[in-house]
């Protein structure tokens, strides 16, 4: 395992920031957001009590609900830390304060960690595996808003 | 439109951070804060229900009130994203959690986005146009504290 | 006083982030956290009403209590600003939102500034002096949770 080169580190940190911008832009559908993931990406939100999604369809279904239900989103990301780099796969973690408001007036405020495994595909960095784990205790509204229904 | 060079990106991100430090230092007047703006700078806070200010005098007047009224400020900035670079003008957006407390005990807590158009002037990067737009729904106390009176 | 070189700036910012990760990992003791400090490090938390600690034993004692009492920690750091660099000592400040929950169910939420004086020791950057100062007014629970008992 070698040190993550500065350009890879910047690209992956930018990818994580871009994820926040796109998940917060609750307009015009989620195609731009989904374009940040590889076609075989896995999203494991089970550490915070939400689904693990192992197919493109499952991921799209999750974000379809998010974009349909939420009127406001604000995901602030910091504490970027390179975890590993093997020459192909870059793993980075970061802290996120995630705020949201749903159309029925419910609100959610989570303090979590993102871990993203990223690879370059056709000249663009993409997310291959995305895990969310808890920072502070999670509010009950998280399951109400984003849980399986 | 070309890619923003790393040194410009760093300088503009630093300028946005410096804005936060100076707007949070509610002592010794606001001359150091105002020095971050070009003489013809425009501040458009209308997307969050506050004034658009198109003259130096108007900007100074706004911050005079802020520095007079507020006892505490805390502006945490993250999610820096280069938007454009034409060789002269660098545009960057970022997310800000802005907290404040006024001398009458009122408090404000906003989650917003800053967009700053920046140019180099006499060897220093300065803000030419500064726009604030909402992230999460804004509290009523924002207008009470910073609105026109 | 010269400009802090980019590699020093990155190393010190990473050290501050690492401090957050390690103070938030409330498992397996605090040896990894303490390893971030020089043997003669001083922690001055008196600006926020907590102790000033001038010996390794005092610092260890403070963090022993923290790791014993707290069930959750979340320290989000941003607004990194290089303050000075003399060729040996790098000083950087940053803003921190520090959240915690103790085993008796008490919670703490502080908005503070960290100032760290850092030096390289045996190829690793370490904290020689660490000061916390208030951003927003501090909650009473801060002293209840972390104060001297």
Structure, explained:
Chains A, B, C: One of its GO terms (molecular function) is isomerase activity. Chains A, B, C: Keywords: Isomerase. Chains A, B, C: InterPro entries: NTF2-like_dom_sf, SnoaL-like. The structure is a homotrimer of 149-residue chains. With 149 residues, chain A is α+β, with helices and mostly antiparallel strands. Chain A has one domain: Nuclear Transport Factor 2, Chain: A (Roll). Helices cover 29% and strands 44% of the residues of chain A. The first copy, chain A, contains four helices and six strands; from the N terminus they run H-H-E-E-H-E-E-E-E-H. Chain A has helices at residues 6-24, 31-34, 56-69, 141-146; strands at residues 37-44, 52-53, 70-85, 90-102, 107-121, 124-134. In chain A, strands 2-1-6-5-4-3 form a six-stranded mixed beta sheet. The first copy, chain A, is globular, with a radius of gyration of 15 Å. Chain A binds chain B through residues 14, 17-18, 20-21, 24, 72, 74-78, 97, 99, 101, and chain B through 76, 78-81, 95, 97, 111, 135-137.
């Amino acid at each position: 395992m070698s040190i993550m080169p500065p350009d890879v580190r910047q690209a992956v940190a930018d990818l994580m920031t871009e994820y926040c911008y796109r998940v917060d832009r609750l307009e015009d559908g989620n195609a731009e957001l989904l374009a940040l993931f590889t076609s075989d990406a896995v999203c494991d939100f089970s550490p915070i009590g939400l689904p693990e999604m192992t197919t493109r369809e499952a991921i799209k279904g999750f974000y379809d609900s998010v974009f349909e239900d939420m009127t406001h989103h604000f995901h602030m990301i910091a504490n970027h830390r390179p975890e590993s780099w093997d020459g192909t796969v870059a793993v980075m973690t970061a802290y996120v304060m995630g705020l949201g408001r749903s159309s029925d007036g419910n609100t959610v405020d989570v303090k979590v960690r993102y871990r993203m495994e990223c690879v370059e595909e056709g000249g663009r960095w993409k997310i291959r595996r995305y895990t969310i784990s808890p920072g502070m205790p999670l509010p009950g509204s998280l399951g109400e808003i984003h849980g399986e229904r």
